[in-house]
From TrEMBL:
InterPro entries: Alpha/beta_knot_MTases (IPR029028), RlmH-like (IPR003742), tRNA_m1G_MTases_N (IPR029026)
Annotated source species: Parasulfuritortus cantonensis
Protein name: Ribosomal RNA large subunit methyltransferase H
Matches recorded under HAMAP family: 23SrRNA_methyltr_H
Predominant location: cytoplasm
Top-level taxonomy: Bacteria, Pseudomonadati, Pseudomonadota, Betaproteobacteria, Nitrosomonadales
Subcellular location: Cytoplasm
Residue numbers binding S-adenosyl-L-methionine: 72, 103, 122-127
Length: 155
């Protein structure tokens, strides 16, 4: 199974890039994570809805055929780490790859959200894009560690 992080935003601070890279490297081969940076739309004179629509098209363009789409959205369902681990186990059992989409500054377009198999929220707090990527990578590793009975996670 492969997990894709489809993230709108192409320039992360060095600290965030290093953290994401570290957690991605920790994942086992049978559940590898690939981060796909998607170029954000230029804001000049465009409405937020138009920007989201153009970015959604780029996200969908990077979505492999047969891959389950999970949208990360502030209005999505909040899950605990244990619940994320259960989702990860369910996804693994489905035999399909999973793409987790992180929107740009304006979020994800409504049609993309509607197309997603699930909508999850990392937090009700507004997170900077770089931090959202780090948080997602760390939580995927933590969820895997629970499934593998690895001592990384402590309740």
């Amino acid at each position: 199974m492969k997990l894709l992080i489809l993230a709108v935003g192409d320039k992360l601070p060095a600290w965030a890039e290093a953290a994401v890279t570290d957690y991605v490297k920790r994942m086992p081969r049978e559940m590898r994570v690939e981060v796909v940076a998607i170029k954000p739309e230029k804001r000049a004179g465009q409405s937020p809805e138009r920007i989201k629509a153009l970015e959604a098209a780029r996200v969908l363009d990077k979505l492999p055929d047969g891959c389950t789409l999970v949208a990360l959205d502030e209005h999505g369902r909040e899950v605990s780490t244990r619940e994320l681990a259960q989702l990860l186990d369910d996804w693994r059992g489905s035999g399909r790859d999973v793409a987790l989409a992180i929107g740009g500054a304006d979020g994800l377009a409504a049609p993309l959200l509607a197309q997603a198999a699930a909508q999850l929220s990392l937090s009700r707090l507004t997170l900077p894009h770089a931090l959202a990527r780090v948080l997602l990578a760390e939580q995927l590793y933590r969820a895997w560690s629970l499934l593998a009975n690895h001592p990384y996670h402590r309740d």
